[in-house]
């Protein structure tokens, strides 16, 4: 399987609402029995949900699970350098996320906390590439003022609006990107549709949980509340700090990074933006390719650059491209984002 393959929809049921923007983006009809709780499409996932049934792993169109496919031919899928450094896992979880309601305020452990207390080598730094947003829609990130541990505990105990109010509110629109380092508390507001890159875990500390009906054991990763709250960055996250976490992916012409520099230790999101007569080219890599604007052709050169294959693509197409497919070129009037592991 050396050609790009289209990734099937993979939308495990979640506790919060959403999902119609994913179906619309993908060009799919909303099924008559749609339950309204399919807000995340897990793309090229080797990760399972921490709770809520444990689904999430991608099954390819031929019925093989992605972990099985990777194990059968790791060098082809991931490239020998990646396998030597990271083993037979992409080290990346990519999602489309449609917030049909505001998500609860939560945070994810960083690598050090996950290694020390959760027996896991990955934390969960994540990044949002905003593909669409209702007018005035926002996200929240980081405490504006430093919160002493006892104040954080008190806010979590109270489970009221003060937790959200303590965060930086950021109005977003299509074209924005935001990096969310492990530990930083955050929430995505209703009406925001993002392409999300994450470290490949489902470890969340649900600071807000009661109004979403989440159990405490799920909310705090099975840890004591005090221990779980040690993973939270108590701030402050200042204006200057926020500026280092933001970018505009639509500012890229040709080839460039969608995410701020400090994301590259965790994952990469490369924008390839072609205009008629000016193709854009990216080097061979395992990548989830999401067509975010326009239409055109995606060509892979083949491992030896002598067996090119072309696919017609348009906004909403989601492709999995193995390292062995070779370099990728897009032609036409089209912009894609290539979600890739760290180099
Ligand atoms: Zn999150």
UniProtKB/TrEMBL annotation:
Q: Which Gene3D superfamilies match?
A: Jelly Rolls (2.60.120.10)
Gene Ontology MF term list:
isomerase activity
Name assigned to this protein:
Class I mannose-6-phosphate isomerase
Q: Where is coiled-coil annotated? A: none
Organism's domain of life?
Bacteria
Q: Which PANTHER family match?
A: FRUCTOKINASE (PTHR42742:SF3), TRANSCRIPTIONAL REPRESSOR MPRA (PTHR42742)
**What are the UniProt keywords, alphabetically?**
Isomerase, Metal-binding, Zinc
Entry-linked SUPFAM superfamilies: RmlC-like cupins (SSF51182)
Q: According to the entry, what is the taxonomic lineage of the organism?
A: Bacteria, Bacillati, Actinomycetota, Actinomycetes, Micrococcales
| CDD domains registered for this protein in UniProt | cupin_PMI_type_I_N_bac
């Amino acid at each position: 399987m050396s050609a790009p393959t289209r990734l099937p929809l993979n939308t495990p049921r979640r506790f919060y609402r959403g999902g119609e923007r994913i179906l619309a983006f993908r060009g799919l009809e909303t099924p008559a029995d749609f339950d309204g709780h399919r807000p995340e499409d897990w793309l090229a996932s080797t990760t399972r949900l921490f709770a809520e049934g444990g689904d999430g792993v991608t099954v390819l169109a031929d019925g093989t699970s992605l972990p099985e496919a990777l194990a059968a031919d790791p060098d082809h899928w991931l490239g020998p350098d990646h396998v030597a450094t990271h083993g037979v896992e992409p080290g990346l979880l990519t999602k489309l996320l449609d917030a049909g309601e505001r998500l609860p305020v939560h945070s994810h452990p960083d690598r050090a906390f996950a290694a020390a207390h959760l027996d896991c080598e990955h934390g969960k730094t994540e990044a949002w590439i905003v593909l669409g947003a209702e007018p005035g829609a926002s996200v929240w990130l980081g405490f504006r003022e430093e919160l002493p541990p006892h104040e954080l505990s008190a806010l979590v105990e109270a489970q009221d609006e003060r937790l959200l109010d303590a965060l930086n509110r950021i109005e977003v629109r299509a074209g924005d990107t935001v990096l969310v380092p492990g530990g930083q508390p955050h929430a995505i507001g209703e009406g925001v549709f993002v392409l999300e890159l994450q470290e490949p875990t489902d470890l969340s500390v649900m600071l807000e949980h009661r109004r979403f009906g989440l159990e405490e054991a799920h909310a705090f990763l099975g840890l004591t509340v005090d221990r779980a709250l040690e993973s939270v960055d108590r701030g402050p996250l200042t204006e200057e700090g926020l500026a280092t976490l933001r970018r505009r992916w639509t500012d890229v012409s040709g080839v460039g990074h969608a995410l701020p520099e400090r994301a590259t230790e965790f994952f990469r999101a490369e924008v390839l933006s072609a205009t008629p007569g000016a193709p854009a080219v990216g080097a061979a890599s395992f990548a989830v390719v999401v067509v975010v604007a326009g239409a055109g052709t995606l060509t892979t050169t083949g491992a030896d650059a002598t067996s090119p294959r072309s696919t017609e693509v348009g906004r909403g197409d989601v492709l999995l491209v193995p390292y062995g497919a070779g370099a990728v070129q897009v032609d036409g009037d089209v912009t894609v984002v290539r979600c890739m592991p760290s180099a």
